[in-house]
Design brief:
By secondary structure, the chain is α/β, with parallel strands linked by helices. It has two domains: 214 residues, no CATH class; 129 residues, no CATH class. Helices cover 51% and strands 9% of the residues. Strand 5 and strand 6 form a beta hairpin. Helix 6 packs across helix 7, helix 8 crosses helix 10 and helix 14 packs across helix 16.
Length: 388
Amino acid sequence: MTTSDIPEPLKITEEHFLDTGTDVEAEIETEDAPPEIDRPWNPEQIRVNTKQFSLRNVLDMIEDESLELAPDFQRGRVWKPVQKSRLIESVLLQIPLPAFYFAEDTDGLMRVVDGLQRLSTIHDFVRGGEKQGFPLKGLEYLQSAVEGKRFEDLPAPWKRRIYNTQIVTNVIDPTTPADVMYDIFKRINTGGTPLNAQEIRHCMSKDRSRRILREMTFTAEFNEATNGMGGHIRMNDREMALRFAAFWLMGTEGYAKYAAMDSFLQRTTTVLDSAGEADARVDGLMSAFRKAMVNARLVFGEQAFRKWPLYSTGRNPINRALFETWSITLAAYEAADLEQRREAIVAAARQLMSRDYRYLEAITSSTGDVRRVRYRFEATARAAEAGK
C-alpha cells in the first residue's frame, strides 16, 4: 500500500467563533445538493402580533419569569464592555432600538428569540443580575455625563429615560406550528452574530428538552469521549446529543420521513419536550448515550468522532456525521467485545476515511442528504463488525 493509492483528502474546515476554533468541523452544503422538502406554508398559520412595551415593563417581566432569557444560553452574553455600554448610550440618546421577537407558549410564558443580547445587556445594567451591573465605558457622546457610572449612579432623569423607553416587539402566537416558527426564526436571525440552528432550537424549546440535553452533555462519559465538549459556547454539544437522541428514537427510516436535518431535529426536540411521549424512553436514551460514549473512547481514544485517515498526523475537529453514526452504532455493542476487536475496527474505520470517497462525501458535504445518511450508517455498521 502506498500513499498514492489513497484519494486526495477532502479539506477539513473548523468552525470558528470570535476568531477562536470550536473543535467542531464545519458542515458544507454543495451547490448540487438536493433541496430539502418543499414546505409551502399556509400564510394563515403564521400568527405574529406586534406589541409595544416599556423597558421597565420588560425588565419586570424578566424578574417575575414571565419573559425568559433562555436559561443556560451563554452565547447571548458575549458582548464586550464597550459594545454593552454603547447600547445603553443609544437608549439614553433615545435612538430607537430594532424590533424584538418573542415567542409565546400556551401557558402565556414568553421567550426572547431575537434581541437576546440586547435585553441581556440592558437587564445586566439596570437590574444587576449575576454581575451586579457594569460601569459605562468607551462612550462616544455622553462621556462627560455618564462615563464610568453604573445604573445606580445615574441621575433620576437618566434612569427614567431608560425605564420609559418604548420597544417594538413581534410576539409569535403559540398556535403557530413548530416548523413554521422555526422557519420564522431563521428568517429573522440577522443580528451581528446570528444564532446557529441549535441556538434557535434552544430558544424555541421548553425546559424539559433543555434539561435532558444538558444532562447528556454534562456526563463524564461524553466529556471524556469529546475532550471536554460539554458547555460548548455555540451549543454544538447539545446538537450532537440531540442527533444521538433523534437517531436513537427514530432511526434512519425516521430520518427519511423528514429528509432534512433541521426538521428531524426539531421534531425530536418536540418529542423530548412532550412529557407523556418520551417519558418511558428517556432513561433508556441516557443509558444508551453513556454506553456509546464509553465505547467510542474505548475504541478510538482521543480520535473519537474525528476524521482519522491513514497517514494522517494530529487530531482533526469533531465531525457531527461521524458522531451520530458511530455513537448510535457503538451503543449496540458490549465493551468486552469491542476491546477484543478494537484494532480491527479502527483499521476498518480508517480505511473508510481514506479509500471510500462516497463515505468521505457522506460525512463531509450535504450530510443531510437521505442517501448519504443511509450510506454512512450502513458503512459504519460494517466497519463495527470488523474482526468477527
